[in-house]
Amino acid sequence: xxxxxxxxxxxxxxxxxxxxxxxxxxxxxxxxxxxxPDAEKREFFEHQMGVRTTPQNDAxxxxxxxxxxxxxxxxxxxxxxxxxxxxxxxxPLVVSIVAGILERDIQRWSGDGLSIVRAMPNTPxxxxxxxxxxxxxxLVDDAQRDVAESLLRAVGTTVWLHEEVLLDVVTALSxxxxxxxxxxxxxxxxxxxxxxxxxxxxxLLTLETCLGAAKLAINSDEDLLQLRQRVTSPGGTxxxxxxxxxxxxxxxxxxxxxxxxxxxxxxxxxxxxxx
Length: 275
What we know:
- The chain is of the alpha/beta class.
- The protein has helices at residues 13-24, 39-48, 57-62, 76-90, 103-110, 142-153, 166-175, 177-194, 199-218, 224-230, 237-247, 250-272; strands spanning 6-9, 32-35, 52-54, 66-69, 93-96, 116-120, 130-136, 156-160.
- The chain has twelve helices and eight strands.
- Strand 5, helix 5 (103-110) and strand 6 (116-120) form a beta-alpha-beta unit.
- Helix 4 (76-90) crosses helix 5.
- The protein is elongated and about 70 Å long.
């Protein structure tokens, strides 16, 4: 697969993370190219990462077997309309990491008939710990699926979805999820400070506790309920705290928040795809 050239349209943080991940897995430098209008960003990719850059999207598309769309959602339509001829002539595998833009709209703006994978990586890609949902249209073959998966696995874990609509659920879970955990950790840290811990101590213990809980869950065959029960002694401090959370109906609040995020993801898809 590493004999294929991967071109990135857009050189923002997520593209930078993916390029770094690919290089770390041994992808050849000369098989990666970036189109980016910002000269400072191009200079970073060239001098710090050793990959080719150009200010012209068409030049990247014409040289690539795989084109990764990594632009802001609000400019996606204009980018694709301008690149339509190049995409139709080259007919690469198109991997979109642009949030909210539906496959049908990518196809429509690109001129139809393209193999398209939509991917929803989250911000922990910046530290190599992304959780990414992938959806492929019917034109994507097995070899192309392998390339798309390899690309996103370079920055974390991937899962394939059989319906595009499930990307809205992934958006609400892993896309927005880091903010949920940050919110919870922020509240936990503040509670510790209010009970007398120094701020730096509260922060360290909060972050390490969150990391440790995640590691325990990842390395265990037990489900989350069993793991929670294992660390909840009858009559102990953990049980008392969880009773307060249950009384406040925390699971109901989280479900309502999750539902709101799923609905908003769907709304944005419709809004961003309008002509």
